[in-house]
Structure formats: structure tokens, C-alpha cells
Amino acid sequence: MFRVRTAFSTSRRYSLPLLVTLAAIRLLSASNSLQAGNPTVAPMIRLIESGRLPEERIPTVVELICKRGDAEDLQYLFEKAASKDSVSPENRSAMLNGLANTMRDRKLKPSGVLTQLRGLLKRATADKNLTAQKQVIELVGLWKVQGMAAELADTLKQGAADELTGAIIGTLAELKGEDSARLITDLTKSDQPKRLRRQAIVALAAIDLSAAAEAAGQYIADANTKDNFDSLLKPFLARQQGPNLLGKAIAARELNPDVAKLVLRSMLTSGKNEAALADPLSEAAGLGKAMEPMTKEQLQQLAQEVAAHGDAARGEQVFRREELNCYKCHAIGKAGANIGPDLSAVGGSSPIDYLVNSLLLPSQAIKEAYKTALILDIDGLSHTGIVVDRDDERVVLRDAQGKEVTIAEDDIEFEKEGDSLMPSGLTKFLTHQEFVDLVRYLSALGKDDGYTMTAEPTVYRWRVYRSPSGKTTLPNADDDSIRNMLFEYAPEKWTPFYSLASGELPLGEARNVARNPMVFAYAEIVVNVAGNIQLQLNNENGVIAWLDNRRVAPSEWQSLHVDEGEHRLMFRIDTREFPAEGFTAKVLKGSESAAEYTIVVGE
Length: 603
What we know:
Layout (H helix, E strand, L loop, with lengths): L4 E3 L8 H16 L10 H9 L7 H11 L2 H12 L6 H18 L9 H11 L3 H13 L6 H9 L4 H14 L2 H9 L7 H11 L4 H14 L7 H8 L4 H10 L5 H13 L5 H11 L10 H14 L2 H8 L11 E2 L2 E2 L9 H4 L2 H9 L11 E6 L4 E9 L3 E5 L5 E5 L3 E7 L13 H13 L16 E5 L13 H11 L4 E5 L6 E2 H8 L3 E12 L1 E7 L5 E5 L2 E3 L7 E3 L2 E10 L7 E2 L1 E5 L6 E6 L2
Antiparallel strand pairs: 1-20, 2-3, 4-5, 4-8, 5-6, 6-7, 9-10, 9-12, 11-18, 12-17, 12-20, 13-16, 13-19, 14-15, 14-17
Helix pairs in contact: 1-2, 3-5, 4-5, 5-7, 6-7, 7-9, 8-9, 9-11, 11-12, 11-13, 12-14, 14-16, 15-16, 17-21, 18-21
């Protein structure tokens, strides 16, 4: 089941299975209202114990128990998860995940003895279930089960699976013992593998921020342009003194200029622009310091230059660049993230000087719906994001990565209005002409031909497959090979991809992602009422289509039956035969017995 945001909606329905589950809970509550136990949660527990609840609905009830239950209710879930044969692996995972989230969100844990975690971990290890092992290891840290620290350290020394090292190091940091700190510090040294070293620095930041900053500074000095710095910077950007300490460590070392640019870019795309860190990085990268506001005369001159010499087509290519990461916060045609405003019509509503200021100094032009809160919690961690939900118990922020962070109201030490999640400084990486072209593109959106979203239901959100195997690219590739290689063997190779403002999927870019002239791309639709749809492509040459796992002949495209539910529309486009540089796919209602459906948008 995937979670979606949709566009072009033709109807709206509620989930029948969820309504049935809630109705059953209410019925049990009414019939057993006089029995002992938490009156809110007791009916849910009885429903699980009755054996009448379908397996696929158990995670929904578990989530409700975790949100509303007390420590004794959580103890029931923990004992249920710890028992050997009482639940399926999937539902055990749902219970462990719910217990972890409850500790994070509500600071509440089970009431009884927690050493059953040891047996759970041994069983998960014997079953080679990495997901379960990771969940148990994280609970050890969240619940502060000190008695398991030594064996986790031994597991790390003996060579834990790569998927578990981060969880083990993080848990040792949570436990905060002297032995844990010593082991983690040793793992930050230059002789350790980079991945392990990076994870250890992140964990050390929770124990000794100064030591972690020195280790991170040396890591960056040793790094090359193939390294990723997102996770390394996160703990320093989240702590008040983090940018200052890391900035000093960087200033004391000699950095590769290109590495400095990558670290600076990583900080900016995280939604932060801390001068204490940005200044030494900018100096090491050979870039200028902080942006200064433009005068009124400079803005007028730039606006004239944009109108006279800006190129919207080139600007669209700048917008789509990976290093700017614009789709991480914004959407075009509702395809992309929903952290910042959808830019589909920004050119029709915003003058050029506003667009320039929004790019150079975004915190000076924040719309009301996108104002942020900066919260400092009792652990000294800072959180910045848009407030998406709030009540008397907790506040939920959506950060610059689109992740929702829940903070208990009792844990808030300080709060104020924050800066824009789009940091100033992103344009440092652009030439003057590239900046002029980018502004011209934004000014064209929703206004100029070729940059106005079509009213017809057009696919803007895609997934493109990286490096498809030779067998799947053969002219006569069978459907089993396609399904096995693309969706079962390596589904993680599907990469988010977005159409141009015109609705065209740019095949040149798609070829670069695929590293192959044969491009596989799919879209998703949600059908609310079964019926017929039409597939309308801008050209059919070199194209093969599938509806889910069934190949669909071109003769069916004008009247293709779809059942209620979620569906995948996949296309294999041979760019050597396809006559255009862009591929456009529209999903229209069938002429007879039309389906009611939505095209999935969002990230």
C-alpha cells in the first residue's frame, strides 16, 4: 500500500476496511464497558485477543493502542511481540515500530521488565531478520536497557552487518556509558571505513559535541568529491553550538575546494545557512560570503536584463539541476515536494523583483502558509519546520527534507518564528547568466506558452529505472523478465523523475538516468470506480506499455479497463525509435463506462 497525494480527482471515498475495524472496536467497547482496564484501549486489546481481527488490520489497531494506551497497554503489546509464535513477522514488526514511536512521541514505555528484548534479538538474529534486529536494537537505546550495552559492543567488534552498524552505534550513544563513548570515539579515526566512521561521528555528537566536531573536520579534510555529507552535518546543524564548533574545526584544516562546495551545498539543501559554518566553507571553496540585499535600482536593472536576455528553456534546466535540488521543496504541476509552494503559476502572480528576492533572500519573502517555527528542546536540539499539526501534548513540524518531526510540548525549552526552509546562498553555485535564466523561467510559469500546466490529466510524476539489465532491453523481452528484473530483483533502482512544465518527460535526461537508450518509466493511478480509461501519448513509435504486470497492446489504449484500486502504468521507450525529445502521457476518461480515477502526484 503506498501513501499518495493525488491530482485530477474525480471522486472521493473512505476506506471500508478501516471503517469496519473502527466499528468493531466501538461494538466491543459498548458490550464490555464495565470490564476493567483502560476504557479507551481495552476493547482494542480484546479485539486482538479474540482472533476475529483480520491479520491485515492488526497494524491499524496497534497504532491506535500506541497513541491512546498507558504503560500497561504497551506492556501487553511488548509481551505479544516478544512471544515466539503468537503474531506474524509483519505484525510483530508493526508492534515494535509502534512501541518505538510511542517512546519518541509520548516518552512512554511498557510497565514491566524489558530484558525480553534480549530473547527477541537472539531470535531475530537466528532468523537473519535484519529489520527485526534493527528495531530491537533501537528499542534498547530508547528504553535505556543498560544491561545489553556490552553485548551490542561485542557484536560491533565482531563485524555486524552493514545495515545494523548505524543502529548499534546510535543505541550505544543513547546509553551514554563510558565504555560506549570510548568505543564510538575509536570508530571515528581515519583508519576506519568511511561509512562506519561517519556513523560514529554522528553518534559521538550526542555524547561529546566538541570531540565529534574535531572528528568531522578531519573526515571532511580526508574526503573526496564522491563522498556524501548530509548525515554527517545533521547532528551539528541540529545543536546550538554545532555550527560554531564544526566551523572552527574546518577553518583549522586545509580542504579540497570542490569538497568544500559539496559540504556547503549539503548544508544549504538541508534548509540551514549558518554563517559560522558557511563562511569557512565559502572561503575554502573560493566563494563569496553571505548575500547582501539588492538596492531598488539594482533590482530594476536586473529585471530589465531578465526580460531582455533571460532564456526560460535554459532556466528550466537550471531549476532541474541536482545540486539545486529544487524539487526537494517545490512542485510543478503538483509533481514534487509540498514543503514550499507549488510554483506552477508563480510567474502569473509574482513580479520579477519579488522572484529575485525570493531566490537571494528567501526569508524576506515568506508567505503566511510557509512560515516556520524554530524550537529548541530540553536536550539542546534545534528543530526548524512548518507546523503541520499541534495540540496540547505535541507539535508536529515538517522539515526541509519533508520529514515530520514530533516534539512533546513538555520538551519545548524555547520557541520562536524561524527563517525560510529555503536558505539563502543556493544561488552561489550559479553564474550570473544562469541566475538570469532561472528568474526568466520562474516568471514564465503559468503565463507563457509552453510553461502553463495543461488542464488535461497529464502525468507529471514518474519513476525512471537506473541501468536496466540487457535482458529487459531486448526487443522481444518477455513480461516475466520485465517484472522480475525491474520490480522484484532491484526495486530500489526506480528513481523519482518529473516532467517539464509543458508535461513532457525529457528523454535526454531520462537516458542519462537509465544510462541506456531504452528508458523504463512508470506512473501510478488510483481508481475509485472501475471502468475504462484512454492512454493518449504524443507518439507511439518505439513504445511498449504495461498495466501492472500485463502488457497492453496499442489497440487497447483507447478503451482500457481498470478495476478499483491502485495501478501502475509502465512504458518502455526506445529513444532510438521515438521521434521526439519529450514523451507525454495523458490518462483520459474512457468514452464508454468511464472509470473514476486520480493520477498520483507528489514526490
